[in-house]
Amino acid sequence: MLCHKVQYTSWSQSKHKTKGLDCEGCHGNGADYKAMPVMKDHAAAVKAGLVIPGLGFCKKCHVKTDASMLPLVHAHKAK
Asked: Among 1, 46, 49, 48, which Cα is nearest to 23's?
């Protein structure tokens, strides 16, 4: 929450928060990629375990979803 304030604030306004889904539920275990040199290197973060969920990932819970729903995950992306 302290490192990704915009994303956290945005997520906190989403339905995912009200359903109890936290950051790691979609992005994987933060402890695996939290080191600053890793976080500043997108490829290294992904290699270390950062998940960048796409439509296929969302369909695990949202069977009837489509790409138009992706911006709704974080309110700042929907603007």
From this structure: 1
* Per-residue tens of pLDDT for the chain, all 79 residues: 777 888 888 888 888 888 888 889 989 999 999 999 999 999 999 999 999 888 898 898 888 888 888 877 776 665 5
Residue 13 structural domain: 5-78
Q: What share of the chain is helix, strand, coil (3-state, %, to 5)?
A: 55, 0, 45
> Do 26 and 53 contact (CB within 8 A), yes or no?
yes
Identity of the residue numbered 24:
E
Q: How many domains does the chain have?
A: 1
